[in-house]
Design brief:
Length: 345
């Protein structure tokens, strides 16, 4: 019996991706990179203090955490879905580590089991969301917002809404530096490189992109599409959990609602990075750069004393712009205009 990889070769080349995967890092990557450089140039003129060593030292870890969360969101969006359970997973993962690593009722005062429990809970949440979307045909927005509510319920039942200090080992790790740069930056970069390699240079990744680009064609080719869609939600949830645990380390006394601020930015980073909200097209490298852009934008807003509402306006505008730039089929529009122009002649 043919494997999913063999079946994917029967699909059009456009759906399975180009073998020149390094070249595919251009386009949106270059665009968001230029926008980020322009933002830094504006910061130099408008608010140079936002680029001071102290400001950058505090910004980089948060940019790395947003990059991890946004990479997970990108995987889901690339499969034509959207994950609204980000706040729940980010918050619950930190709460589990804080509570059980400190020996709460039923827990063991040991960090490793607490971490395993946090990632296991995240994987289970992703598995359930993936099954609901891929096998039960529940709309992604409905499945994940329901999962988010469930996770918040578990969160409150564990913590009672009372913050608990994060283990010192995690705080020490997230605040550590190598060559003057936060370890989280190296970690986020390493995760991005591994994911890019898997998606762009492996048979699994080619099938994954094919399913996202055209699920109906992939299913007709005999590919078990549900596996890949479910894998996207599981992988995304694990990345959210990592981001939540590291965020807890930075906050030291993480709030049970700490994940609330990561839903919109994760979607905005994915869209700014060129990931189509209609699925198929995704750019993980550009997502990481977009996370840097959004984090520095937040720093600029805070430094200038502007309202936090300005930040939300930019995030919303980013999603709308992404929908317009990456969602509209310009070839179809140009063909339509040519037909109309001929009819007037």
């Amino acid at each position: 019996m043919a494997s999913d990889t063999e079946r994917s070769t029967r699909m059009p080349a456009a759906a399975t991706g180009s073998p020149g995967w390094i070249a595919s890092l251009g386009g949106p990557t270059a665009g968001i990179a230029i926008a980020t450089l322009l933002l830094f140039a504006i910061c130099i003129v408008v608010a140079p203090q936002s680029l001071s060593s102290g400001a950058l030292s505090g910004t980089v870890p948060f940019a790395a955490i947003l990059a991890l969360v946004a990479l997970g969101q990108t995987l889901v969006i690339q499969q034509g879905g959207i994950d609204l359970s980000v706040p729940g997973v980010v918050s619950l993962s930190a709460v589990i580590v804080c509570y059980f690593a400190n020996g709460g009722p039923g827990g063991s005062p040991d960090l490793v089991p607490a971490l395993a429990l946090a990632f296991g809970a995240a994987a289970l949440a992703g598995l359930i969301s993936g099954i609901l979307v891929s096998r039960v045909s529940v709309a992604p927005i409905v499945a994940t917002i329901g999962m988010n509510a469930l996770l918040y319920g578990v969160n409150i039942s564990i913590s009672g809404g009372t913050p608990v200090a994060i283990p010192l080992e995690i705080s020490a790790f997230v605040n550590a530096k190598l060559f003057g740069l936060s370890l989280l930056a190296y970690l986020a970069l390493a995760v991005a490189v591994v994911l890019i390699f898997i998606i762009k240079a492996t048979s699994f990744g080619r099938v994954f992109e094919a399913v996202g680009a055209n699920e109906r064609a992939a299913r007709a080719a005999g590919i078990a599409t549900a596996r890949y869609k479910t894998a996207a939600y599981i992988g995304a949830a694990l990345l959210y959990a990592a981001g939540g645990i590291f965020l807890g380390g930075l906050m030291q006394l993480p709030s049970p609602q700490q994940g609330d601020n990561y839903l919109m930015p994760s979607i905005a980073a994915a869209v700014l990075g060129g990931t189509s909200l209609f699925g198929g097209r995704g750019n993980l490298a550009a997502t990481v750069i977009a996370a840097i852009f959004l984090t520095q934008l937040q720093q600029l807003v805070l430094t200038t004393g502007a309202s936090v509402g300005v930040q939300y306006l930019f995030q919303g505008a980013a999603i709308l712009i992404g929908l317009g730039v990456y969602g509209v089929k310009f070839k179809d529009l140009s063909r339509l205009f040519r037909v109309r122009n001929r009819s007037y002649c």
